[in-house]
């Protein structure tokens, strides 16, 4: 379910989704962009009324967008939801292709110029140094940091070119040392 439906009671939504599972049209159900309260309500209604339960949640989560850790992550842990973070690379900001001096071509410059203007470039450059010293790309470290977080099932990564798809897949199996992940976590926790 891509987003909550404010017009339909969760009981009706879960009844319809349970029917789809029963018909074999879908195997499991997940939600995206639910608030913690909506996710808890859905879990409690499913248990109480015997409906299929959501097994996953999809939320924005990255090194530079960590609100998820205090909102939905505790709910995901409590209710056993697999997490599929989207915008893991912050629209390319965490790939190293954008620079303080304005370098880097990409959609972020035209679609979200405010994000670039508000970027903590000192922090981003420190991140690049950590990755360089560890011998890993920012992509590798970003994905591995996410995959090391509680309940993360996979990372939703966008791509505009075939080589980006291949590189994203490779990043999922990179072997980044734990001390590097801890250093990165500390850097972006400030």
TrEMBL record:
It comes from the Bacteria. Coiled coil: none annotated. Keywords: Oxidoreductase. One of its GO terms (molecular function) is oxidoreductase activity. One of its GO terms (cellular component) is cytosol. Residues 1-186 form the NADP-dependent oxidoreductase domain. It holds the Pfam family Aldo_ket_red. InterPro entries: AKR_Detox_Biosynth (IPR050523), NAD(P)_OxRdtase_dom_sf (IPR036812), NADP_OxRdtase_dom (IPR023210). PANTHER family: NAD(P)-LINKED OXIDOREDUCTASE SUPERFAMILY PROTEIN (PTHR43364:SF4), NADH-SPECIFIC METHYLGLYOXAL REDUCTASE-RELATED (PTHR43364). This is NADP-dependent oxidoreductase domain-containing protein. It comes from Tessaracoccus flavescens. The lineage of its organism: Bacteria, Bacillati, Actinomycetota, Actinomycetes, Propionibacteriales.
